[in-house]
Amino acid sequence: MNVIYPLAVPKGRRLCCEVCEAPAERMCMDCTVTYYCGPVHQKADWGSIHEKICPLLIPLRTTMPFYNSEEERQHGLQQLQKRQKHLIEFCYTVAQKYLFEGRYEEAVPAALHSLRFRMNVYGLNSVELVPAYLLLAEASLGLGRIVQAEEYLSQARWTVLKSTDCSNATHSLLHRNLGLLYMAKENFEEARYHLANDIYFASCAFGTDDIRTSGGYFHLANIFYALSKMGLADTLYTKVSEIWFTYLNDHYQVLLQARSQQTDLLGKQFVNDTGLDEAQEAEAIQILTSILNIRESSSSKAPQKTVFIMKTLSMLYYLMLECSMAKEYAKRALSLAKEHLSVQEQRFIQALLKVISTEEERSTK
């Protein structure tokens, strides 16, 4: 961890904490451009995001060099903005990943970074700020800070209302977070309204059977589950499972076909790929394991649906190159399939298990 020393602030200059914006007393001695109110917030920021981006902050927070021409100056400004946009997305993805993993405290500093970079690039009133507000709202909900979550959501909602060019994807995110807020407040009627809107806008943006739409179905299913409307919940959980299975199976089959043909258009060794970023992988794990837990605890005990979600998780972990987890789920699926399903239905799992074992052997050579 980097060393922090007390500041000697020039008279008249006010430095603010990276996390809470209170007057700063310490500085990161690695980058020398990041400040904190004390060791608690410094440690929180370091563990969340600062360790990952510390050297990247130096060119963004130091005075631009003197340029010999306007053309050079414009090029320098373009490079600066490009770095900021990269950090916007990187910090956003890191914060999202923490949220899906339930690490809400760690998500906050990363989300704050994304918000501040967005403000620098797009201004204080841009709709581009909304995704960061929503991350902070979701983290606040996870921490039980409902009032703070409502403040972030109000800011996001107001920004969307003022915008004339807000995308369907952003509308979807806003309604999803409003749905989560009302779920936390156990106002399920209002939550259902917002999640229905989430599904509508996500469907407009991505399609009804896209993985980015599946989150709305999943949260709506959770409401019906909480209300003991098991038939509706089961239908939606099944739809979510099928969306993720179709997506992952497509990637899995492409990989198998490429390996069987021994071709690689890039001339490189084959690499398993989910086609997802880290946050989306964490979301997939969170959604699919939640559904599996519900399937296994259900009094109806539907083995076919349980096997289906297990083999979906197995494919996910295989494509993530986590063969031990992939094998565990495949073995569990096969064991249950042998008890309850036909031989034909067992064959897919047996083939998957064989592919995973081959991958394990290849990786140890």
TrEMBL record:
GO BP, sorted A to Z: sperm axoneme assembly
Residues covered by the MYND-type domain: 17-54
Gene3D superfamilies assigned to the protein according to its UniProt record, in alphabetical order: 6.10.140.2220, Tetratricopeptide repeat domain
GO CC terms: sperm flagellum
Record key words, sorted: Metal-binding, Zinc, Zinc-finger
Name by which UniProt lists this protein: Zinc finger MYND domain-containing protein 12 isoform X2
Tagged with keyword Zinc: yes
MF terms (GO), sorted A to Z: zinc ion binding
Keyword Zinc-finger set for record: yes
